[in-house]
Amino acid sequence: MLALKEIPELRLTHSQIQAQVSQFLRVDGYFVFPNRQDQLSYAGISDLTAIKDGRIIWIEIKTDRDTQNPKQIKFQKDIEENDGEYRVARSIDDIEDLCEGRIKFI
């Protein structure tokens, strides 16, 4: 009898999750763009910004094993203290509610 080899768990990369989240939101009409960290950027700025109908959402992408660093936590706090909206997304499941049920999974 042949033994089945253990199938490794599929893990998406940060880039793959970011692409999925961006595409998912764009399908629903969001204007989505990446934020690049450099010397002049706000330390800890989120990976993505999504805008629709005047609503602005800052989205930090994380893999299932990643956690926010202290600068990212401070950025989140600064956004939320100013009545901004901030999300941590490990998959499209974490932002699905932003599409108000217009996009359905098969």
Chain-wise SSE layout:
Layout: H1 14-27, E1 31-34, E2 48-52, E3 55-61, H2 70-81, E4 85-89
Parallel strand pairs: 3-4
Antiparallel strand pairs: 1-2, 2-3
Q: Tell me the strand percentage band.
A: 15-25%
**Category by helix and strand content:** alpha+beta
The total count of helices amounts to 2
What's the CATH C level of the domain at 32-97?
Alpha Beta
The neighbouring-strand order within the major sheet is 1-2-3-4
What is the first-to-last residue Cα distance? 37 Å
How would you state the average pLDDT, rounded? 89
Low-confidence stretches: none
How many individual β-strands?
A: 4
Morphology: globular
Helical proportion? 10-25%
Largest sheet, in brief, is: 4 strands, mixed
Notes on the protein architecture:
The protein is built from 2 helices and 4 strands, in the order αβββαβ. The chain has a 4-stranded mixed sheet, sandwiched between helices. Strand 3, helix 2 (70-81) and strand 4 (85-89) form a beta-alpha-beta unit. The chain is an alpha+beta fold and 106 residues long.
Summarize the structure.
With 106 residues, the chain is of the alpha+beta class. It has a domain at 32-97: Trna Endonuclease, Chain: A, domain 1 (3-Layer(aba) Sandwich).
Notable characteristics:
single chain; 106 residues; alpha+beta; Trna Endonuclease, Chain: A, domain 1; 4-stranded mixed sheet; 25% helix; 20% strand
